[in-house]
Amino acid sequence: MKQLNYWIASKDHHVRKKNLSASMTFDPKWYLKYGTKQHFLLRILYCTGLLVDSDKSSRNRIIFTVLFSIHLLVVADYVMEVILLIRSSISDLFFKITLINSVSYILSIVAWCELRRKRRILSLCLNMLRKTHVFSSRKVQIISFLFFFSLSISRLALDFKRSTDVLKYPIKMYGFEINTYVGITMIYIKTILLMFINPTWINFIILLYCLLCGHVSKLIRLSRIHIERSSPEEFTSSRQAGIAKNEAKLSSLVQLLQNVFSVPSFLISVALFCTCITALGMLIVLFGEFQRFALQSLVALMFVNSFGGLVICLWTAGGLPVEVEKLKETLRKKLQQKRLSENLIGDTCGDMKSLKVSSFVLSGCNIVYFQRNSILALAGTILTYTILLVSRQ
Known about the structure:
Elements: H1 2-21, H2 40-47, H3 58-85, H4 92-117, H5 119-128, H6 138-163, E1 171-173, E2 176-178, H7 180-229, H8 237-285, H9 293-317, H10 319-341, H11 349-354, E3 363-364, E4 368-369, H12 375-391
Antiparallel strand pairs: 1-2, 3-4
Keywords: Membrane, Transmembrane, Transmembrane helix
Organism: Caerostris darwini
Protein name: Gustatory receptor
């Protein structure tokens, strides 16, 4: 780990020197550091300030500052509304749901800040994967666009349909009554901005995390298939040294991912968990009220999006240790076959120790461990906390 930290520090120092020598000049072909084309996800990373190259364009720095400031103000406004709800005579359940939802928005903004703080390491990680074309697949581009926007647009449409009922009542902001149409316009603008934070921005972080984890899993799987197809005679000492070198590169890459996404993945997991229990709680309360179909559909979509995001994270990031275990088993069998072909008797443990393979278990702040066997436990935990939330209204 110390060697990895030293390597990251030296790389970071090299990148810093290179940036200073470039005098923050804009490079129109910045994307060549991360791939052959300027892909959709790569462009979003660039515009949201999550790459080292994002700071080289003065226009991009202004866009990021304005965008981040607007969303920070919107979240602050939402929190202010929650504080004002303390004085109003609303139901205890509605207040708790609004309060928990505000936590998810705050955590999303903090995750954004944390990713921006780690943008150098994230850029280094993407640079290491540039030859593997992590973003270049057309299938990945289509799935990314649909996952990134479709749920948010559907949720936004349902929310707009539901908010038409507001026209029947006077609108108040910070305790003051305002013009109905001005109020509706402000509500729509705030809704769009809040939708960017949750679920759109949260979905983007999940998508980026899962794409990188899935790509590393694919590299491990290809390495395992390559070993399986080789004969025992081809499995020489030089071949084993090459496997060990390849595993060391993958291990460094996984540790970079852990370094970048440890805090953001934990924050996003907590935000999604909060959305899950509030959405499921509202579904239980609204069960049978068919006249509020738009609200029920909106809440159901929130739950599906949040629970689906958690499951995708656990399944994709949890695929790394699964693939590693398969790789270890393949290595053990191949070493055993080689010993048998050479008429050697003995255990393969000594040979396996020379080919050390890490477990590759990712975590969020060493609190949330992303493993596939945690999915059922997650579902049970969500159900338990939802019942506690609803039963104590």
